[in-house]
Amino acid sequence: SGDEDYRMILPALPSGESMKNAVVLHGDIACRPYRIEDFRQPLDEAGVLGEVAKIGAFQMSHVWLLDLKTYAAKQKLLAGRLAVKGRKCVVVDPYRQEIRIKLHWVSFGVTNDTIQRAFYDYGEVKEVAYEKWKVPGFDGAESTTRTVRLVLREGVSLERLPHQLRLGGGMVLVVVPGRAPVCLRCRRTGHIRRECRAPWCSECRAVGHERADCVRTYARAAGRGAGDDNTDHLMDEEEAEKVAAPMEPTTERAKKDGAPGTVPAVVSASPPAGPS
User: Which range of residues forms the domain containing residue 176?
Assistant: First the structure.
């Protein structure tokens, strides 16, 4: 199916009351460009073609804004699966008030109250849950990943949420479904480090310009500490998600099918037993 290569690239999305019956259709970027005809059969099979009130491309050819006649039709579309041009099409709800965020690299001493306070400016934290491994030998052990259920404040978009937070003296990676990732190399959004094409300066070791264009200043030199060279070893969103759900040896089911390979181990999210 090629879903493992699927990449989410979204512009800043509209929000508010006008999006109550609307969804965003995010097609596979490998299948660009998209045309209105590409959505006719998928929406018909989803049972909502007759409920379409407005539809059109939104800033990017693989991102389409769809407004439905009823809220029920919107929920029907969100509850199902959609394939456009034979590939997965993600249905995003721009109106949704509650989102589920993943925090990677959370040190064990960071309390849930600390996390709740860190997101206070962005919305109301409904729950902070520890993720626990379900892997032989580590079953039930808490990981360095936590999930946060957050109800966004009015006017706060997904793009306003931080990509990284400093908690407990360390940096935490914030992964928000439906939001474009940030490059840990050039700090721009829309791609990850291995896709980065920004130039690198061998003079000041900064990203964004080449040596011939370097204007080395004291502020720039002082602003780059020795620890900056370690950023190349930091995991980006894609790597962090894979590490949080490692691959286990082939299961009996796979052996029975005669297909060698791996299956993902399960990581469960569970709320804390008591107050942090």
Answer: 98-181+236-243
Count helices and strands (H / E) in the chain.
6, 14
Name residue 63's beta-bridge partners. Answer: 26
Alpha-carbon torsion (90, 15, 171, 186), positive or negative: positive
Record the tokens describing residue 228, joined without a space: 């900056």
**Of all residues in the chain, what percent carry a pLDDT higher than 90?**
42
Residues 27 and 65 occupy one common structural domain: yes
In the predicted model, is pLDDT for residue 131 greater than 70? yes
Asked if 224 and 232 touch (Cβ cutoff 8 Å), the reply is no
Please tell me the pTM assigned to this model: 0.52
Q: How far apart are the first and last CA of the chain?
A: 42
- The count of structural domains within the chain is 2
CATH of the domain at 16: 3.30.70.330
Residue 100 clears pLDDT 70, i.e. is over it:
yes
